[in-house]
Amino acid sequence: MSDYLVIVESPAKAKTIERYLGKKYKVKASMGHVRDLPKSQMGVDIENKYEPKYITIRGKGPVLKELKTAAKKAKRVYLAADPDREGEAIAWHLAHSLDLDTASDCRVVFNEITKDAIKESFKHPRPINMDLVDAQQARRILDRLVGYNISPLLWKKVKKGLSAGRVQSVALRLIIDREKEIQNFKPEEYWTIDAQFLKGKHQFQASFYGKNGKKVSLKSEQEVKEILSAIQGNEFELASVTKRERRRNPAPPFTTSSLQQEAARKLNFRAKKTMMLAQQLYEGIDLGKEGTVGLITYMRTDSTRISDIAQKEAYEYVSSIHGKEYTKTSETKKDKKQAKAQDAHEAIRPTSVMREPSSLKEFLSRDQLRLYKLIWERFLASQMAAAIMDTVSADIVNGDITFRATGSKLKFPGFMKVYVEGTDDGQEEKDRQLPHLEKGDKVQSSDVDPKQHFTQPPPRYTEARLVKTLEELGIGRPSTFAPTLDTIQKRGYVALDNKRFIPTELGEIVYDLLAEFFADIIDVEFTAKMEKDLDGVEEGRVEWIQIIDEFYKGFEKHLTKAEEEMEQVEIKDEPAGEDCEKCGSPMVFKMGRYGKFMACSNFPDCRNTKAIVKEIGVKCPKCKDGNIIERKSKKRRIFYGCDQFPECEFLSWDKPIERKCPKCEQMLVEKRLKKGVQIQCTNCDYKEETQA
Question: Which of 120, 311, 364, 507 is the 20 to 30 Å CA partner of 390?
C-alpha cells in the first residue's frame, strides 16, 4: 500500500511525477474534471443565489471509483492539478467527490515538472484557494447563463447547432467590423520620390523629405512635377549628418498569447496546435536514459516573470557560450501590457536552458522540436544584452528641396545573435549602410524615380493578430484564446481565406441578431470590464454572486425582449443555376461549416453535393481548352487546377494570372511571400516588384 496518493489531470504527467516522488507515492490521473454542470439543462438555480448543480461527468464514473478506492487506502491525498483557476476548480471538485477537507493542506502546485520543482512543491502543500475556485465558478456560470439562454433562441430563430458566448461573440464582432472597414475603405493617392546618389564611387539611396526643411506629403502627380521642376541640376549638398547609437532590447520571454502569435508567424502553427504541443512539452517527454522530463514551464500564463534560479542558469550559459559581453547587464523595461498581468506564475521558458534543442532531436517530433526551439531561443535572448546599432541620418539639399537618407549598421548583435522577434508583415530590420558622409559634402543625383501609391485597407485578422487584439482589449484570458478561435470556426461563423478570417453569411446573421437584442454581449468595453470584475473575484475583492447578479438583472430583460420580438430568420437556399447530374432536380447553394456548397434540392432522396467552382478568368496553359479554377485540398489549402481534370492534370499552388511573361511568353503567377505578393514567371527569372 502506498502511503500517499497524488492526483493530477493527465496520465503523461502522472507517469513523470511518480518517477520523481518514489515508492511511497502513487500518482493517478483524473483525466481533467470529474464534475461539471449538466449538458442537458442550465444547471444553475437562478432563484437560489445562482447555486450551481454539479454532476459526475458521463464516463467518469469508473475513474472516480478508482480514485475513491485509492484514496481510502492512502494515509494522505494530494491534489496536484494545474496551477491556475481551472486546476484549482478540478482540485476542489475532487476534494468534494473524495470527502477531503478543502481547508487541509491537500493542494500542491508547481510551475514545472522537474525533479527539484516537484520535490520542493510537496514541502509546501496548502489549502484549496477558494478565491480561485470562485473565479472559475463565476466564469463557468456566467458562460452557462449566456450560452444556455441565447443558443436555444438562435436554434429556434435561425438554425440548430448555433451558439453565443461572451468571448466568442466579441471575437466575431472584431472580424465583422474589420470586414466592414475593408468594404468601406476608400484608397487615397500618394507619391514618393526615390533617388540614387553618388559620392565618389559609392552609391546610396535617399527619398524626398520636404521643402524648406519641413516635411511635405505628396498627394498628386502635379505636386511631384512641381518638386522635380524645382530641382536645379543634379548636384546636391549634405546639409546635415546625424549619427547616433541606438540600443534595441530583447523581447520578454513568452506568455501564452505571445507564444501563440510567434508560433503563427514563424512556424505557421494554428493556436490550437501550439497549445497542444506546449502541453506535451510541459507534461513530459521520454528522453531515454534520463527518463521522462518536463521540458518547459506551465504554458498558460500572462506573466513575463523569471525565477532567480533560471536567470542565474541563463547567465552562466550565455557567458560560457557567447562571452560575458553578451550577458544581460540591467533589467529591461517591463512591457506596459504586462503591468496588469496576474503574475500567478512564471513566463513560458525551458525548464533548463542547458538542454539545447539540438540535443533533443532524437526524442521529439519535428513540430515538438520546432516549438521547443522557439521557446528556448526566445527565453535565452530575453536574458541577453541589448543589441547596439549605429544609425546615420543625412539631409541632402538642392535649393529648397530636401532628400533624406537613413542607414544603420549592427555594431554589437547582443541578443540578436540568438533570436529576433517576428513581425506581422514578415519584414525584419536589415542593415542599410551609407558611405562616409560629412556636412558640406557634394553628391550627384541619378535615377530620380517618382512612384504613385494608394493607401491600403487594414488587413484581415490572422489568428496571431486576433489573439494580440483580444489581449490588448482585455478580452478573454490565456486559456481561452485557442478554444475561442476554434469555436467560431466550428460554428461556421467565420472561415479562413489565405490564413485570414472572413465572416460567413451565417456569422453576419448571428452578429446582427446579437447586436440588436444583446448589445452588451458583443460590446468590447462591457466584456473587458466583466473580465476585470472576474479578476476581482480571484483576488478576493469581490463576491462572485454579486458579479453574476449585476449582469443577469440586465441580461434577463434583454432575453425577455428577444424572445418576444426576435423574428424568424429564414436562410433560403439560392438556386445554383444548374441541375443535379444524378437525379435531374435543381441544384441549390447551401451553407455549411466551411461556407457555401452546392447540394441537390431533392435531399434527402438525393444526397449529391458539389463544391462551388470559382473561375479566375485564366485559360489552362497545359491543355489550352480548359479554364483554371480555384480548388481546396483536404487540409483546406487553396490551389489551382484545370476544370478538365482528370483529363488535364495541371496544378499550381500559386495563382496564375492572365498576362504572359514579357521575356518568354510563359505563364505568370502570383507568388505569396511573407512581405506581400510578387508576380513571377514559372519558366524564367522574370519578377515584378513585390506588392504589400
Answer: 311
